[in-house]
Amino acid sequence: MQNNDSYNSFGLLKFIWKWRWWFVIIGLATAILSLLCSYLVAPRYKSTAVVYATRTNSNAKILLNKENYNERLEVKAYGTEEETEQLMQLFNALEIKDSLIQRYKLAEHYDISTNSKGWQTKLYKKLTSNLTIKRTDFGAVSVSVSDEDPQTACDMANYVLQLIDTVKNRTECERAAAAYAALKRQVDSVDKEIARIDDSIKVCMEHGVFQLDEQTNRVMQQYAIAVAQGNQAAIARLDNEQRKLATWGPKLDAWQDLQYNFREYQSLCKEKMMSVQLDMQGAIPVKFVVDRPIVADKKYFPKRSVIMIVSTFCVLAITLIVLLMIDKIEEKPATKPEKAVD
Fold first, then answer.
1. Does residue 182 sit in helix, strand or coil?
2. Which of 187, 218, 286, 330 is 20–30 Å from 250 (CA)?
3. How far apart are alpha carbons 170 and 281 in whole angstroms?
4. Could you report how far apart the first and last alpha carbons of the chain are, in Å?
């Protein structure tokens, strides 16, 4: 089998040598033609940015953290795999693509007629092919924009970096705004309830009850002194005080406990409102920019040498196959020897 393979390989080399001038001419013609065709393809330039996701984007948790140290709440903490995937999804948001289309008039830039059928699909497809969002080997997010104009590619890549803060902050601010409105309604309701409790406490105080425990102790001391002295007028007056304390004292005590609980809840709601209000401002960037896009001074496509080599190799391979088929067809079958005549 080994000898047969060597013979087949040697036969193939002999066949190529037989047609060597054809291969030389076709190869040179293909190389020259592919090189000339590569100059007809408009060069494209690429600008790339590399960013890392942040661990958390809650301004309140980062700036107002009163708990023990937590690396997740550090403003310098890098995002995990989950945050990186979320950031990649935001980079692919339709809002970013629409903003790019409007700002740079990409329909006109890509020479897509808005009167043609399915022009929006073509436009989004073209933009998607020119805007590449992928994850790097080190867990970062690479944002690449390619275009025939290097300055446009760089400007679009920088604009995408700006938009990602806007898009993420907008989505989170919408939720924070809804939470703020809910807390505001709750605070207003609690304020009304506290006002009603204050009115009830005021009624109790109008009946001479201010501090149940202190007043009770003082009345009991004075009552004991009046009884010991046999002062009936004082005893009658203190009996009246005791009845008022017995009637309004428990009410005052209950209203004050309720007032304390409501004020604690009111303080908690207002603290949450301030935290949510800080989140609504969205002042902290949602990514760490490692590499900012720059204007490319060298095209990345087309690679003329690659086009020439691949084209020449493919054409020579096809030429070899065609010549082998022609040679096989033209090969005459061996004739059988005639029988001898007696």
1. helix
2. 187
3. 10
4. 44
Reading the block at residue 111, the tokens are 């020479």
Give the DSSP H/E element, type plus range, for residue 131: strand 131-135
Provide the token pair at 203. 């009624």
**CA distance linking residue 107 with residue 113, whole number of Å:** 7
List the structure tokens of 279: 């989140």
Omega before residue 302 within 30° of 0, cis? yes
User: Tokens 């009115």 correspond to what residue?
Assistant: 199
Do 144 and 47 contact (CB within 8 A), yes or no?
Answer: yes
Record the tokens describing residue 280, joined without a space: 């609504």
d(CA 234, CA 240): 10
CB-based burial label for 329 (10 Å; 0-12, 13-18, 19+): exposed
Which secondary structure element, helix H or strand E, spans residue 82, and what is its range?
Answer: helix 81-91
Distance in angstroms (rounded) separating the CA atoms of residues 163 and 335:
80
Token digits for 253? 């005590």
Output the pTM of the full model: 0.61
CA distance 304 to 312: 12
For every one of its 342 residues, what pLDDT tens digit does the chain have, with 9 covering 90 and above? 444 444 466 777 777 777 778 888 888 888 888 777 766 667 788 999 999 988 765 555 555 555 544 455 555 667 778 888 888 888 988 999 999 999 999 999 888 888 888 899 999 999 999 999 999 888 899 999 999 889 999 999 999 998 988 888 787 777 788 888 888 898 899 899 889 988 887 887 777 777 766 777 776 777 677 777 777 777 777 777 777 777 777 787 888 888 889 889 888 888 888 877 777 776 677 788 888 999 988 877 667 677 778 888 888 888 888 877 877 777 655 444 554 444
Q: Check residue 336 and report its DSSP letter.
A: P
